[in-house]
């Protein structure tokens, strides 16, 4: 129950407890989206909040020129579409399923009612939002000061971090295009950096996936 934290060293572990998830699941409607399915579009009015139960969802910001920036990759236990609680509700990004996903969809009014009923859950959601904001601030600072290799190293370290839930180090199953959208660089530039990391033994390929092989050396790239 966590998210991929890209810009910070902190763990963006989901603050939702099993009881929180049970309550949300009971009050919402379960839905499935196939790979490539869109949960919501940037610019649309937002009427619903989503709790991710299974699969991964990427959330992208699309600039005026069409350039995509991946803001976050959500894993099970994460809440998505919280801008539905804003006034007026408006989607500030686009959410797309990276694989078949299962979500619980809650209406704006139902989510507001739950938060009013449960002050502890409200505080957990507030913490989640503050952690995400901190992550975005760190990424903006990286875009100004860090090289592509440093930004890519940070992304790979975040994506490949040990999962305390499954007690495993996950493989990174993302396209070079997705990685470039997370790093904030052109795809050929990111591909070249990945090839250097591969030759230097920092990562290894497992089919179409990437495994972080040497976290220590990757982390040292971040030291300026």
UniProtKB/TrEMBL annotation:
Record bears the keyword Transcription: yes
Membrane spanning residue stretches: none
CDD domains from the UniProt entry: CAP_ED
Keywords: DNA-binding, Transcription, Transcription regulation
An annotated Gene Ontology molecular function: DNA-binding transcription factor activity
Superkingdom of source: Bacteria
PROSITE patterns referenced in this protein's UniProt entry, alphabetically: CNMP_BINDING_3 (PS50042), HTH_CRP_2 (PS51063)
Gene Ontology cellular component annotations, sorted alphabetically: cytosol
InterPro entries, sorted: cNMP-bd_dom, cNMP-bd_dom_sf, Env_Response_Regulators, HTH_CRP, RmlC-like_jellyroll, WH_DNA-bd_sf
Pfam families membership: cNMP_binding, HTH_Crp_2
Domain (HTH crp-type) ranges: 146-216
Domain Cyclic nucleotide-binding, residue spans: 12-132
Protein name from the UniProt record: Transcriptional regulator /transcriptional regulator, Crp/Fnr family
The organism of origin for this protein: Bradyrhizobium erythrophlei
